[in-house]
Amino acid sequence: MPQLRDSHTNDALSGSFLDASNGSFDRIFGIETEYGISVTGTERPCPAAEVARTMFQPVVSRSRSTNTYLHNGARLYLDVGSHPEYATAETRSPLDALKQDLAGEHIMIGLAQRAQEQLQRQHGPQARVHLFKNNVDASGQSFGCHENYLLRRQVSLDDVRRLLVPFLVTRQLFSGAGKVTRSGFELSQRADYLDEAVSSATTRSRPMVNTRDEPHANPELYRRLHVIVGDSNRSQTATWMKLATTHLVLCIIEEAVERGTLTPFEPYALIDPGKAIRAVSKDMSGHAAIDVVGSGDGGDSMHSSALSIQHAYLEAAQDFVTRHSNDKDMVLDNAGQVLELWGEALQSIEDGNWQSLSSWVDWAAKLRIINALKHRYSTLHAPGSAPSWAQLKMFDFEYHDIMNGHVFESMQAHHRIRSLIDARMIVDAVNNPPMNTRAHLRGRFIHAALAKDLSWSCDWTHLVATGEENHAEFEIMDPFMCESTPQFEKFIDAIS
Amino acid sequence: MPQEQQSKAQQTHAEEADLQSRQRENGNESHIDELDSVLDDIETSLSENAEEYVSRFVQKGGE
Where do the TM regions start and end (chain A) (predicted)? Predict the structure, then answer.
């Protein structure tokens, strides 16, 4: 695995870099979601590997592999541990990334429905396939939801550790998916599984930011920031806010590095990120003590809190958006709404009124219903009774079951959760790649290859027709490239 | 091209307005009723075999 170069020593990158692409703060976004699977209603347990194989039979029939790309530009595959995984196509905005991630849910449900029908023929009509968009199974094994952000190469890994990680550790106040544990409710699914801040491993140790150097773009200009600290969100608004706020923070860091100035985030570099993320996850008040380096000249560390740290990032983002108000659309669509929701979230937690966030913050939605459920048991059922541990844990899992779950679906049906994307937009994202990234060209290639029943392969940067008679290759290193070129048309003609 | 840029800007503004309207609509409605209807739905499913449901969800870690 290639090691990252220290970008500060790269003389080839002198001069301004913020306009290296098509817009000053333009960015590529992507989400990789791993799903958990299980089967109930059968006499004997069905191993996850068997269910996953059944789910992926149509994929293997189409591509002779459990690893393929789709005509909407996404990657669909079976990952380590029999986890179905969907990596969205490259997008240019958090909202587009959300649409593509929801397209992934839609596609996964289709595969699971077919698998359920097959299992019902083998095991009887009670068999149910469950597909969990969460991050921990019943035995405590964890799997991920990874965010990808194209980042200007001049931002060093040490910048990421000092300036971004404190934000990632504390954003769970509004992005955590919530988890029922035997020792109490936690804001985050992932906090207990992360130790280091930045590292190249994902399975042996679990860092918050993975440093594997696969930019899938010009490595002189960019790195791919691979954030693996986040939870899988069911709430559309939480997914959108998670990406949008992270984008704004990255813009601030990129601008400071470009200008050679300091960000206001320096005092908040964490002394122990692993300890900090677990403290934040167990604390609904936002006030748990977190050790940060501080700004004192004496070099003494100081106590801060998730709320204080988030307020510092929010204020910097407000200032940044104001300073760039003339080119706000280039920074982020709907930036005003993002800042407003972000501020509301912090204020609600500050006021001890986290319940008011239950219409879009996953952990708050879950905890509000758990509390209501406990209240109902103790008042309507036998006095003093309470839901069992298994019932609470089932509720937790059900919230994330996109196939046969009732919790989130009931909340949607009763308008308890804010939606941003409707069914029509999701179907559009299933059928069409984003038109403003290279995914558009990948989609055209896959469409043409499937129409002609060609042998083909591709990855994020390469398109290959592998037949002996019409072997042809095309490379797209620029993820922002979305317009066809004469060379691309020639390539498509050659395989058609 | 100017024409394309204008068209993209119009589309962006339309999407933004749509998004704002959708958020207002959902936000208002979500505060009207209590959680009883959601709890009714959930209790039905929780009365099934919770032990089996939980114990069946075991697989190796991923990533």
Answer: none
pLDDT band of A86, cuts 50, 70, 90: very high
Choice among A6, A11, A26, A79 that is catalytic: A79
Interface of A with B in 116-175 (CB under 8 A): 130, 132, 137-139, 141-144, 146
For A458, the domain range is 438-495
User: A377-403, pLDDT tens digit by residue?
Assistant: 888 777 778 899 999 999 999 999 999
CB of A45 less than 8 A from some CB of B: yes
Nearest to B56 among A38, A82, A398 (CB): A38
Residue A338 sits in the same domain as residue A395: no
The interface predicted TM-score of the complex, written ipTM, equals: 0.87
Question: From the list A237, A372, A415, which residue is nearest B39 (CB)?
Answer: A372
Give the Cβ contact number of residue A195 at 10 Å.
Answer: 16
Does residue A379 sit at the B interface (CB-CB below 8 Å)?
no
The pTM score is 0.89
Q: Which residue from B22, B35, B61 is facing A81, i.e. has the nearest CB?
A: B61
- Identify whether residues A323 and A217 lie together within a single domain: yes
Is residue A487 included in any domain, yes or no? yes
What per-residue confidence (pLDDT) applies to A18?
Answer: 52
Tally the domains of chain A.
Answer: 3
Active-site annotation holds for A79: yes
Q: Is the dihedral of CA A86, A89, A93, A98 positive or negative?
A: negative
CA distance A10 to chain B (A): 31
Residues of chain B with confidence (pLDDT) below 50? 1-14, 17, 21-33
- Tens of pLDDT, residues A105-126: 999 999 999 999 999 999 999 9
Task: State mean pLDDT over A462-491.
Answer: 93
Would residue A384 be called left, alpha or beta, if left means φ above 0 and alpha means ψ between -120 and 50 degrees? left
Q: Are residues A116 and A214 in the same domain?
A: yes
